[in-house]
Amino acid sequence: MLPTLSIGSFVLQTPGLALLAGVYLAMALIEKDAARLKLNKEHVYNMVFWGLVIGVVGARLAYAARYFSVYLQTPLSLFALNPQTLSPVDGALIGLLAAMVYGWRKALPLRPTLDALTAGLAAFMIAMGLAHLLSGDAFGAPTRLPWGIELWGEVRHPTQVYEIILAVAIFVAVRRWPMGHKGNGLNFLLFVALSAAARLFLEAFRGDSLIWGDGWRAAQVISLGILMAALWLMGRWRNPSPSSESHYEN
Q: Where are the domains of the chain?
């Protein structure tokens, strides 16, 4: 684990650097695929950009709202470059809503736009796994297997490494063997289904899972629901009726 990197008097958050590199690569791939699918690449780029910006701001504000008294005493902490002080779920929902509104306002066709996002999202998931490895987050359960890693006082499953390997495999799958015809949205659904299946698998080895009720892992339950929804949509989108073609239209 290498959560920080000191360069002179500067201390850099390495997980944040990994995520920034992932965003840069993702944006480059999205812009390239938008042009390949004959979309307005400026609109697609701006949709992602504003979704990210508003999502990050929303994630920080949502986190600050939970610890309002702390931020009231030190308001400048709102501007700290620390990814640990974000609320990822809230930020993702806010950013997704912002991107959807932008896409609707610009009348971007839904399915080609989703396919344009696919490779970039898959690349970002690799960076996410690397960020987890650097920070020690998303750690594994204790194990006696020979490839276990020492972390937080115990030998654990290297779930961050598993995450990176699976993310690379998913990226290769959606990039080299895309599903469906160009721009019909099936490649995006393939990415969603594979990512949900990967999380379903990974969660069995995690040591920090949120548990619901009598031992149900929350992430596995949610991933299973997403996987089933993605597979159902694949069947619907594989042979769509002419009236089912969706657009962001105003």
A: 27-36+111-240, 40-108
